[in-house]
């Protein structure tokens, strides 16, 4: 398959690497020292499932060097989606699929403003990975997987073909009954833990020891559920329970990618997580005081990170 991976970070680097290793033609859009290293030495992936190294078909920071892809994997952060969508638009052909793997509930919404609806696939992923050094991705925990599907959940031929591509690359994957619900289930978890993680600056095992913080996470999750339900997304208490099973079962030292960005003083996905709940709550006249507090507490730091 002819693939463009736009953003070769923890997510794009790992999944793009696996697809290239399996013999797909994978072009990689990166920049700076990371691009220099990939162009010179290829992309190295150190993974708990086995290390590997791949050579991209094209490594570039200029999409005009890439031919029309059958699949674009978006590996940028959720706040970079609109810019990425504008950049890839000229490349998109009738049969191109654009698959966002970001956390967040509004990625498809943002893509729809730029890319035709029939080119967009819904998606999300699980992994713990990051850029360890220019040209090198490190996968440290979780069995990586991709959950994806048509926006209307129909089981089309292209979705089946994409499944075969992921299967033959050894990427665990699934096509759910309701892709929007899956996106929101992950969003529920990540929004519940990331801002509190960023504020406390400790991993999940330390956060869950505190009754106060555990309760705060419960309140955060309930607000996400209320907003989801008002938007027609069927998040139920059982999904909150599942999210808390995850909170309780994560191994010591676990942090989320957004928490790590906040702790490192980098621009984070705060606005697309708790900020999104606040914004949607306002539109729907739903009060979201806990998400608002978390958002406002982190906002000055976020603004500073963005100025830098
Ligand atoms: N990492 C993880 O463990 C997981 C992350 N996620 C989600 O996946 C998404 C991606 O996260 P993650 O992989 O951690 O992010 P990273 O920051 O590691 O990767 C994003 C990459 O995209 C690059 N990029 C952005 N814009 C451009 C551009 N215009 N040109 C070239 N390169 C560009 C960035 O470069 P630069 O650094 O120069 O900006 C960076 O290398 C997020 O939504 C995250 O929440 C989901 C599951 C797990
Ligand atoms: C929760 C987790 C680790 C699962 O993939 C994640 O999405 C992240 O860290 O961004």
Automatic annotation (TrEMBL):
Domain Ketopantoate reductase N-terminal as annotated: residue spans? 3-152
Q: Which UniProt keywords apply?
A: NADP, Oxidoreductase, Pantothenate biosynthesis
First-level EC class: oxidoreductase
Enzyme Commission designation: 1.1.1.169
Please name the Gene3D superfamilies in this protein's record: N-(1-d-carboxylethyl)-l-norvaline Dehydrogenase, domain 2 (1.10.1040.10), NAD(P)-binding Rossmann-like Domain (3.40.50.720)
Question: Which pathway does the protein contribute to?
Answer: Cofactor biosynthesis; (R)-pantothenate biosynthesis; (R)-pantoate from 3-methyl-2-oxobutanoate: step 2/2
Which reactions fall under this protein's catalytic activity? Answer: (R)-pantoate + NADP(+) = 2-dehydropantoate + NADPH + H(+)
Q: Where are the transmembrane segments?
A: none
Which SUPFAM superfamilies does the annotation name? 6-phosphogluconate dehydrogenase C-terminal domain-like, NAD(P)-binding Rossmann-fold domains
**Per the similarity annotation, which family is this?**
Belongs to the ketopantoate reductase family.
> What is this protein's function per UniProt?
Catalyzes the NADPH-dependent reduction of ketopantoate into pantoic acid.
Identification of the protein by name: 2-dehydropantoate 2-reductase
Q: Which organism is it from?
A: Autumnicola musiva
Q: What is the lineage of its organism?
A: Bacteria, Pseudomonadati, Bacteroidota, Flavobacteriia, Flavobacteriales
């Amino acid at each position: 398959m002819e693939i463009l991976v736009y953003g070769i970070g923890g997510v794009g680097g790992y999944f793009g690497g696996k697809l290239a290793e399996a013999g797909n033609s994978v072009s990689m859009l990166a920049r700076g020292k990371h691009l220099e290293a990939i162009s010179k030495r290829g992309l190295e992936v150190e993974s708990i499932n086995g290390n590997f190294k791949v050579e991209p078909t094209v490594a570039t920071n200029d999409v005009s060097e890439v031919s029309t892809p059958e699949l674009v994997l978006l590996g940028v952060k959720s706040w970079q989606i609109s810019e990425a969508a504008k950049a890839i638009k000229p490349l998109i052909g009738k049969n191109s699929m654009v698959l966002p793997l970001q956390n967040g509930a509004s990625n498809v919404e943002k893509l729809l403003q730029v890319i035709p609806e029939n080119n967009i696939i819904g998606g999300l992923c699980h992994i713990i990975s990051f850029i360890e050094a220019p040209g090198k991705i490190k996968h440290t925990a979780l069995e990586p997987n991709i959950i994806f599907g048509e926006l209307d959940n129909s089981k089309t031929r292209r979705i089946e073909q994409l499944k075969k591509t992921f299967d033959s690359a050894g990427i665990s994957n699934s096509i759910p009954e309701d892709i929007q619900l899956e996106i929101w289930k992950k969003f529920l978890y990540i929004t519940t833990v990331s801002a509190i993680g960023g504020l406390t600056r400790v991993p999940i095992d330390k956060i869950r020891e505190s009754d106060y913080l555990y309760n705060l996470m419960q309140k955060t999750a309930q607000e996400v559920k209320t907003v989801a339900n008002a938007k027609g997304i069927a998040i139920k208490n059982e999904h909150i329970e599942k999210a808390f099973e995850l909170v309780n079962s994560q191994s010591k030292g676990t942090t989320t990618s957004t928490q790590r960005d906040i702790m490192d003083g980098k621009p984070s996905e705060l606005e697309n997580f708790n900020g999104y709940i606040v914004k949607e709550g306002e539109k729907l006249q739903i009060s979201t005081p806990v998400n608002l507090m978390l958002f406002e507490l982190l906002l000055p730091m976020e603004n500073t990170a963005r100025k830098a």
